[in-house]
Write a structure and sequence with these properties.
This protein is of the alpha/beta class. It is built from 16 helices and 20 strands. A seven-stranded mixed sheet has the order 14-15-16-13-12-17-18, with helices on both faces. The longest helix is centred in the first third of the chain and has 22 residues. The structure holds nicotinamide-adenine-dinucleotide (NAD). Nicotinamide-adenine-dinucleotide binds next to α7 and α8.
């Protein structure tokens, strides 16, 4: 340890009161699943945290039936103001238990505690507070007077922001008057199960939210259940495609939040110091396991060398290691299979002729780790410039004119996010106007707010989450449902 090294500062896990086994949360209570239980592990140590039940088709059926009953008998009968009270209560309980939730999230997912503590969990509370405020104002959601809820929402979420994706899904669904069956990802079920305890604490009526655990098969049973009215999915484009196919021709309303290959465009007049921090945040936040990550850096040729040199110097200062240590910048990769994908695509990058550079850091001997990595000399045809790596790997490409930057940024099957770094407001607006991406940041990156809609173009999916737009996914205009005797 040198004079300037940080001493270890691990967050204590004493605040956790975890069970050795968790059941499915159906109709307000925990019960064992019929499927084969599985373990959830810490990706930083590979040690088991708890045993998790698996829902089979019958369990999925029970969960959907509980949600249907709660919808018909309770939730759709409550006023918007009363639904809002429950959501406010949930938001406050999340805040009260925020430290515990942050520790559980970092333990189960591998993300640094400073991210779960300062970003994920505060945003979870913010999402519930925001949509609590909408519950009695649905007439102003832009869907005409008296819009109707849809019924039972089936929601399947990924492992990269486990509790935050739950909040993005559950908060608008409940505000709009729907009931929910949600399935968290199999590698990160823990905070969804703690959230189920919060729902019990909040006295949410039984069956309004049901949380079922399991892997892809459970997810498939849920989205294909004939009695769900709405499907919301966040995850890979491959699974999103399958769901689009299987729900086509049904009356189910569908929103998909899928992958991305975001372009972060740095012009020669950009504030370089600020841009370096933005690039780091864009691709190394949450180990790059972010659908809207700025995984392609498009840098104007005249500043390429300066940007890359400064970036390497900055990456050399990042601390990688124990996710629960308050000094950690880069935590563990979520699973062995995700790590395998990063290694495979990075090796392909090298084989295809790009230059690979990784920060010189010591990786822990147990768990799943990948060093912050930059590829230079990348061309648009390289796999690392096209495929979503979903890891701490940045592909650097160059451009000479704004037109070339726009063409390269749009040269992707995805269209989720982009960033523009320039001193000129007029250039930022002109370029933003031509980018095919759902979210575009200017002189910043990875900024989220519950009032701001988020979603993609092309293979990044369809529909928007967040803001007033996020409510539209869970509501139907009254004129459309009235004829069918639609539900309020
Ligand atoms: P995935 O799509 O397989 O899993 C996401 C969720 O869908 C999980 O809860 C999973 O159990 C469930 N699921 C899997 N198969 C299903 C099916 N047939 N029907 C219904 N639900 C199903 O994603 P993954 O394998 O965990 O990750 C693979 C890749 O997906 C990543 O490398 C990354 O590129 C992408 N990804 C994107 C996001 C995002 O936020 N957009 C999040 C996670 C992963």
């Amino acid at each position: 340890m040198t004079f300037l090294d940080y001493a270890p500062a691990p967050e204590s896990t004493a605040i956790l009161n975890l069970k050795s086994e968790y059941g499915l949360f159906i109709n307000g209570e925990f019960r064992p699943g019929n499927g084969e239980s599985f373990k959830t592990i810490s990706p930083a140590t590979e040690k088991q945290i708890s045993t998790i039940s698996c829902a089979d088709e019958k369990d999925v059926d029970s969960a959907v039936a509980a949600a249907r009953k709660a919808y018909e008998r309770t939730w759709s009968k409550l006023s918007g103001a009363d639904r809002g009270k429950y959501l406010f209560r949930i938001a406050r309980l999340v805040q009260e238990r925020s430290r515990e939730l942050a520790v559980a999230e970092s333990l189960d997912n591998g993300k640094p505690i400073k991210e779960s503590r300062d970003v994920d969990i505060p945003m979870v509370a913010a999402w519930f507070f925001y949509y609590a405020g909408w519950a009695d104002k649905l007439d102003y959601a832009g869907l005409g007077p008296d819009p109707r809820s849809l019924g039972v929402a089936a929601q399947v979420i990924p492992w990269n922001f486990p509790l935050l994706m739950l909040a993005w899904k559950i908060a608008p669904a409940l505000a709009a008057g729907n009931t929910v069956v949600l399935k968290p990802a199999e590698t990160t079920p823990l905070t969804a199960l703690l959230f189920a305890e919060i729902l019990q604490q909040a006295d949410l009526p039984d069956g309004v939210v049901n949380i079922i655990t399991g892997a892809g098969e459970t997810g498939s049973d849920l989205v294909n259940h004939p009695d769900v009215n709405k499907v919301a999915f966040t995850g890979s484009t491959a699974v999103g495609r399958q769901i689009a196919r299987s729900t086509a021709g049904t009356a189910k309303k569908l929103t998909l939040e899928l992958g991305g290959k975001g372009a972060n465009i740095v012009f020669d007049d950009a504030p370089i110091d600020q841009a370096i921090e933005g690039i780091v945040n864009g691709i190394f936040f949450n180990q790059g396991q972010v659908c809207c990550a700025g995984s392609r850096l498009l840098v104007q040729e005249s500043v390429h060398d300066e940007v890359v040199d400064r970036l390497k110097a900055r990456l050399s200062t990042l601390r990688i290691g124990d996710p629960l240590d308050k000094n950690t910048d880069i935590g563990a990769i979520n699973s062995a299979s995700q790590l395998g994908r990063m290694r495979e695509l990075s090796d392909i990058g090298e084989q295809e002729g790009a230059d690979r550079w990784s920060a010189d850091c010591v990786l822990p001997s147990e768990g799943f780790w990948f060093p912050p990595t930059i590829f230079t000399n990348v061309s648009t045809s390289h796999r690392i410039a096209r495929d979503e790596i979903f890891g701490p790997v940045l592909s650097v490409l160059t451009f000479r004119t704004p037109a070339e930057a726009i063409a390269k940024a749009n040269n992707t099957p995805y269209g989720l996010s982009a960033g523009i770094w320039s001193d000129k407001g007029s250039r930022v607006l002109a370029v933003a106007d031509k980018l095919r991406a759902g979210v575009i940041w200017a002189n910043t990156f990875n900024k989220f707010d519950p009032a701001s809609p988020f979603g993609g173009y092309k293979e990044s999916g369809y529909g928007r989450e967040g803001g007033r737009h996020g409510l539209a996914a869970y509501l139907a205009p009254a004129y459309r449902t009235a004829a069918k005797g639609g539900r309020k």
